[in-house]
Amino acid sequence: MSFIHDGFLLQSATARRLYHGVAADLPIIDFHCHLLPQEIADDRRFPDLFSIWLAGDHYKWRAMRADGVAEKFCTGEATPREKFDAWCATVPHTLRNPLYHWSHLELKRYFGFDRLISPSTADAIWDLAADRLAAPEFSTRGILEKCRVQIVCTTDDPTDDLAAHRRIAEAGGATRVYPTFRPDKALRVDDPAIFGPWCDLLAARSGVDTGSIVGLLDALRQRHDAFHAIGGRMSDHGLEICYADFCSEAEAIAIFDRARSGQAASPEQHRKFASFLMVYFGRLDAEKGWTKQLHFGARRNNNTRAMRAIGPDTGFDGIGDWPQVDALGRYLDALDSEGALPRMVLYNLNPADNYAVSTLAGCFQGDGIPGKIQFGSGWWFLDQKEGIELQLNALSNTGLLRRFVGMLTDSRSFMSFPRHEYFRRILCQTIGADVEAGLIPDDHELQAGLVRAVCYDNARDFFGLTLPGN
Known about the structure:
By secondary structure, the chain is an alpha/beta fold. It contains 19 helices and 10 strands. It has helices spanning 13-23, 37-41, 49-54, 58-66, 80-90, 98-111, 122-133, 140-146, 163-171, 192-206, 213-229, 249-260, 267-288, 304-310, 325-337, 354-362, 385-398, 418-436, 444-462, and strands at 28-30, 149-153, 176-178, 180-181, 234-239, 291-296, 298-299, 318-319, 343-348, 373-375.
């Protein structure tokens, strides 16, 4: 039997029935990822397996470094084939790491490769992929259709011109691609070298002078409107910590003016300005009926030597252990108190906070919206079997799993869509195990309704995104 077989991760007859009879063929709504819209607009073709599978993958780089692989085979000057060979030599050493599951699942689903990845199979994998990648269905748009992806939501700065999104919309096709408003740089008053040029670019893009805080807010609203006009219905924020050090508009103006003149905000000033803007962003989202996503808890760029040599997003981030829930609760309460609390998805990176975040989300449900505040799926270091199970259990024990919007890829790779299959198998195994243990009634329709809702229906109904054909 091959490693990736019909019963992979499914340890009971109930789990297998739920996966193959309900979950397996549902379309995908990938409501958060880091795919480049330009590559979809251009319908990019990939010349080899390295370019589609390994390039830019800091998950794999971390594993290779841990295996003693030299940096030149990760981010350095080695050839694509040499880097691929180095990865194949590492894969047998990733047993019990999710990369072992993901890598074999991806090769099976994309290329039909059914053997174990190792140096002895590297030639066969490389040659098979080269042959398949030449086929029309392996362009970016072809892959989206092949994987039954109905919706992709990319991650876009407010200064992006959205031209690629307009080209995608004009081309039509089986997949809708929408931008997500991610204004992280708007908070960077602590680093004028980033904040000043970004404000200038925002002014150029919006046509609004950002020399004052009033201009900044107006320019952000103008870009928020532009995202909405092209179909965007979500914002996203990548935060180390949640912000709730609220300040007056006069304080925010003073902090802004100093940053625009080149003076870095102190940590306290930064927290105040970020809190001021996060409330403003909440209001924008609530006005338009958008969903706000908060990704919090990553401790970034831990290795300063590597940061200087290679740059950010190269595998040197980790899980932070800051207290999050007090500030998050005060932020949610501030928006709720003024009637400006939008739908939200809260992605927590430290599993120690799972129950705290999940119970906090339960304090702000209502307004006739099922699951208005979502405890989001296992994120980044937690989007593996144990992390997914921990999130499912915390949510089930403190809220309603039936209203959960499910999984996403959070990926930069067009090879990552099998992560939805991975999640669906784990979900079905979790439900199946409870059925076998007598914890859930042996009622197929009841079980199937739950699985279908979490894998597809809830995301379809929650985010307000227009499906293909509508």
